[in-house]
Amino acid sequence: MLEKGGNMKTYKDYYGNSAFFMGTIINKLEEVYTRYGYDSIYTPLLEKKSFDEKQESIFSVVGSDGDQYSLKFDSTLSLKRLIADHDDIVFPFKRYQIQKSFRKAGRDLNEFYQCDADIIKSKTKNSDAEIIQIASEGLNNVGLYDHSINISHKKIIDALNNNKTIDFEEVSNKNIIESIDILLSKELNSDIKEGLSEIKEIVELLPNETKKKCKLNFDMTEDADYYTGIVFNGVVDTDEPKVLLRGGRYDELIKDSNNNFLPSVGMAYVLEDVLDVLKVKGKDKKCNCDRIIFYLQDDNIEIRNEALARLREKYEVLTVSNEDLSIKEFIDYSKENNARLIGIIKEEALELYRVEEFDAKFNKKETKTLKYERKED
User: Fold this and answer.
1) How far is it between the farthest Cα atoms of the chain?
2) What's the DSSP call for residue 232?
3) How many structural domains are present in the chain?
4) Is 245 helix (H, G, I), strand (E, B) or coil?
5) pLDDT at residue 111, rounded to an integer
6) How far apart are CA 370 and CA 170, in angstroms?
7) 5 located within any domain
8) DSSP for 183-202?
9) Which residue, 260, 285, 310, sits at the end of a domain?
10) Pick the residue with more confidence: 116 or 55?
11) pLDDT tens readout for residues 294-349
12) Are residues 67 and 205 in the same domain?
């Protein structure tokens, strides 16, 4: 139960086009994870309460056994519990997880989808580079090619909190490797130099197209508490820069079943933020779809069923009866339901049309049943 006066602050319903759009984007992010060989995991939304979580942000319930439970605060914390509980996991463990998480803000409850990818028990810079590459490829795969990957390092963040010694303006227009080389030539705190050197080693492992998207950024103090190495985020410009993902190396968070720390690196998109930016850019109307919508009539059932079965082996096929919708209503329905093509059975042949072609040819009909003229051989 929410506290008195509380709300489901980010509660959303997804249906029709919005559900189709969300599902398409999830599939595109998942394509990247699976391309790199990551396995999916699923963990309960209700976890036994852990008292190392941010207590003010978790939503707690008391079970009938008197124990305290919490709605999943964070996928990484669920991963932490999963690894500690199971001694049959093979390392390095590359996993992704797309599930809801919940955060309490005052008396309100925020519900959101996290889309995580992590490499557990790997301390190599190749793993750091791979996670950055996956983060960037995911944004490319949903059509956000104009993104930037801002990169910093925990040692740099901590050093700058004590002494702001870097003139960022001097390197802000340079590529990331050139920027690092300029800074390394200066007299700097040893921790800052160590962090810059490590960033350079990681970025040099990236493909050139991803490398071009990487920038140094020394303002990433947000959510950097548990990171121990690189820290990065992915940003897209709309009216103002929007952070769509965060990630980094965290070597002191995950323990195995023997209570040993496991060096790890990971990242996560917040799905709702990705969807919002795509909508702002008008890309929610441009989802590719192999959906064919058929206008069904009573004639030639055998031919119709054979044709639909054959098409469903390759495409998504949706059917609507002429008893439910008029031609005009059917055309509007097809537009709203992301039809790639419209299909009808004409005599003993299957005919497929683009929506606009079907509209131009048949929308003049006033009746619900189409009348066809036999073509001359």
Assistant:
1) 87
2) E
3) 2
4) strand
5) 83
6) 70
7) no
8) HHTS---HHHHHHHHHHHHH
9) 285
10) 116
11) 888 766 677 788 888 888 888 889 898 888 999 899 999 888 887 889 988 776 67
12) yes
- Domain check: are 77 and 110 in the same one? yes
Q: How many Å apart are CA 111 and CA 371, to the nearest integer? A: 51
CA distance 194 to 188: 10
Mark whether 296 and 226 lie in a shared domain.
Answer: no
Res. 235 pLDDT band, cuts 50 70 90: very high
Q: Of the residues 285, 303, 333, which one is the last residue of a structural domain? A: 285
Please, what is the average pLDDT of the chain? Answer: 84
pLDDT at position 205, please? Answer: 97
Q: For residues 305 and 181, state if they share a domain.
A: no
Express each pLDDT in 161-206 by its tens digit: 877 666 666 666 678 999 999 889 988 889 999 999 999 999 999 9
Q: Say yes or no to pLDDT of 376 above 50.
A: no
Nearest to 195 by CA among 170, 212, 220: 220
Percent helix / strand / coil, the chain, rounded to 5 = 35, 25, 40
What is the rounded distance in angstroms from the CA atom of residue 52 to the CA atom of residue 77? Answer: 10
b/e string for 200-221 if b means 16 or more Cβ within 10 A? bebbebbeeebbebbbbbbebe
Rounded-to-integer distance, Cα 176 and Cα 128, Å:
16
Give the CA distances from residue 129 to residues 165, 211, 242, in Å, rounded to whole numbers and listed in that order: 27, 10, 22
> What pLDDT score was predicted for residue 77?
81
State the pairing for strand pair 93-105/108-120: antiparallel
- The answer to the question of residue 11 being in a domain is no
Which CATH number covers residue 51? 3.30.930.10
Helix 190-203 / helix 125-141 crossing angle, nearest 10 deg? 60
- CA 355/CA 338 separation, integer angstroms: 10
Domain presence at residue 356: yes
Q: Are both 113 and 195 inside the same structural domain?
A: yes
Provide the CATH number for the domain around residue 357.
Answer: 3.40.50.800
Answer yes or no: is 367 within a domain.
Answer: no
Question: What percent of the chain is predicted at pLDDT more than 90?
Answer: 44
Range of the domain at 85: 16-285
